[in-house]
Design goal:
The chain is 4% helix and 63% strand. It contains one helix and 19 strands. The radius of gyration is 22 Å and the shape is globular.
Length: 405
């Protein structure tokens, strides 16, 4: 793939990631990475985990500290179906997790995750993709979206997206993507003002011009229309940014963009304009990866309703251990600061932090054994509005790819 096309694809993926959902209740990795030969490959998977959770109800500090921990056994079946063709790749995946609590058995439940991806190279210049994703999760602290208070309530998300990239000269490429997302919550009457849900439609477009073998300049534009459950109006957001992608050396790359985001006026909300930017630094060498990023923009709030100013910073790191590829160490941390923008809503500022750490061993290609630790915390900057949750555990995951003739 030519460099300009690769940059445009990265752009489209990054634009969709800002509004997307990344969530799973089960911690650690998804299991041994399957290897796909040409043609069809079916990969069944099964795993078990034992986890200690010190705040199963996600209660605020001081409300249920002494009777709020438990051990959870998790069983997660799954399956993966993949097709590798000369010009087409298709992948369908399902994973389910049954959480069985030792003491609080009323919390036992399934969470579900399914996705379908299709990617095709129509010509050397034209490529397209389609994606569908559905998740059903037991708590809101694993739904990676801004403006959602952490709560022991179920959440369901559905995402559909499509994108196309076209290289019209050896130095110039354009990309366009469309994304539809729907979020809903299991919410009693007393939480209807704080767990709204809703739907978002977004179109993102980008252009890149390759200056030389290491540098590309361009521009990004996106339009986002959000309809939040319970709101009497929709919110329209426009973002325009100038962008640069730079390969520092063969193992380090930098991507950055800066511009403005504009919130259109509504019958109850004044128009607003603010800065928008993002920067990401990545490193990949000899199975070691490191990424750090920062994003600032306006996004819809699926929790309290309205629109929020979102600032997010994150870092992740993966490395083999003991000079042995069978041992590895994964860490990631994300901090998000959400500030209300629109008036007339019962919004609260939210500061959220997530940290995950995994140490793993792959004794055989078909089995993975991991120990993991996770911490999530959030504050609404008001008395009693602090939520902390720590989880630690071990899991064993097995999978075995089977070639289908």
């Amino acid at each position: 793939m030519r460099e300009s096309v690769r940059i445009a694809l990265v752009l489209a993926a990054a634009a969709m990631l800002v509004a997307g959902v990344q969530a799973q209740e089960r911690l650690g990795s998804a299991g041994p990475a399957p290897s796909y030969a040409p043609g069809w490959t079916f990969t069944p998977m099964f795993g078990v985990a034992e986890t200690y959770d010190d705040n199963v109800s996600l209660s605020g500090t001081g409300s249920a500290d002494s009777l709020n921990d438990d051990r959870i056994a998790t069983y997660f079946p799954g399956a993966d179906l993949n097709y590798n063709g000369r010009h087409t790749n298709t992948n369908a995946e399902y994973t389910g997790s049954f959480l069985q609590y030792s003491t609080f058995s009323a919390l036992n439940r399934w969470d579900q995750h399914g996705k379908v991806d299709v990617r095709r190279d129509e010509t050397a210049r034209l490529k397209w993709m389609a994606h569908a994703n559905y998740t059903a999760l037991p708590t809101t602290d694993v739904v990676d979206l801004g403006g959602i208070p952490f709560s022991r309530r179920g959440a369901q998300t559905a995402t559909f997206r499509g994108g196309v990239t076209y290289e019209f000269t050896p130095r110039d490429a354009i990309s366009s993507s469309a994304d539809y997302q729907r979020v809903s919550f299991d919410r009693p009457e007393e939480l209807r003002a704080f767990l709204r849900g809703g739907r978002v439609f977004e179109v993102a477009n980008g252009w890149r011009h390759k200056i030389d073998s290491r540098t590309a300049l361009g521009a990004d534009y996106s339009f986002r229309r959000a309809a939040i459950t319970g709101d009497i109006e929709t919110f329209n957001l426009h973002s325009v940014q100038a962008a640069v992608d730079y390969e520092i050396d063969p193992s380090w790359s930098l991507s950055a963009a800066g511009g403005v985001v504009y919130l259109q006026s509504t019958p109850t909300t004044l128009a607003s304009t603010g800065p928008a930017w993002r920067i990401a630094l990545g490193h990949h060498r000899n199975s070691r990866t490191f990424t750090v990023h920062y994003v600032r923009s306006y996004i819809p709030s699926f929790g309290f309703g309205g629109t929020i100013q979102n600032q997010e910073a994150g870092v992740s790191y993966h490395t083999p251990l003991f000079n042995d590829r069978r041992w590895y160490f994964d860490n990631s941390a994300t901090f998000r600061n959400d500030t209300p923008l629109t008036e007339g809503f019962q919004q609260l500022p939210l500061r959220s932090f997530r940290f995950y750490s995994t140490i793993g061993w792959v004794p055989q290609p078909w089995v993975r054994i991991e120990g993991f630790y996770a911490r999530t915390q959030q504050t609404s900057l008001r008395p009693g509005g602090q939520v902390y949750r720590d989880r630690i555990g071990v899991q064993v995951v097995t999978s075995k790819p089977m070639r289908m003739q």
